[in-house]
Amino acid sequence: MRNDTRLSRMLHTLIHMARHEQPATSDTLAQMLSTNPVVVRRTMALLKEQGYVRSEKGHRGGWMLAKPLAEITLLDIHQALGSSSIFAIGLATDQPECLVERAVNNALTEAFDAAQALLLTRLRSITLQQLADDFEQYAELLEATRA
């Protein structure tokens, strides 16, 4: 099963967009992400619906942030992308009348729900600005080691 990398890829994209004053075209973003511009447009449209990005048509047009990074959390982007399941582990439902299956599924559901609540709380507490600041610190450290 493939991992859903949309959240990571969109966070990456948004931070790059914030670092450049020019609008980013779907083609440019697609090249950066090694994907198709149609995929970029479809994904960015989800973020646009929630007010995180905007687009300008025409020459010199493209995608731009609609809000400062400090006003966008990781949870915001996760939810804008459709809140895909956090876990790829599923429950067995072949034998719904089996009491063992019910007990197993109940325990797993409780554990998954608790873990997901913890993760969503953490995602809510991190802004894209914090990630951008982390990047700047990494860049400064790398520059210092090269000097």
From TrEMBL:
Which is an annotated Pfam family here? Rrf2
PROSITE patterns for the chain:
HTH_RRF2_2 (PS51197)
**SUPFAM superfamilies reported for this sequence:** Winged helix' DNA-binding domain
The family database entries (Gene3D superfamilies) matched by this protein are listed as: Winged helix-like DNA-binding domain superfamily/Winged helix DNA-binding domain
Q: What is this protein called?
A: Rrf2 family transcriptional regulator
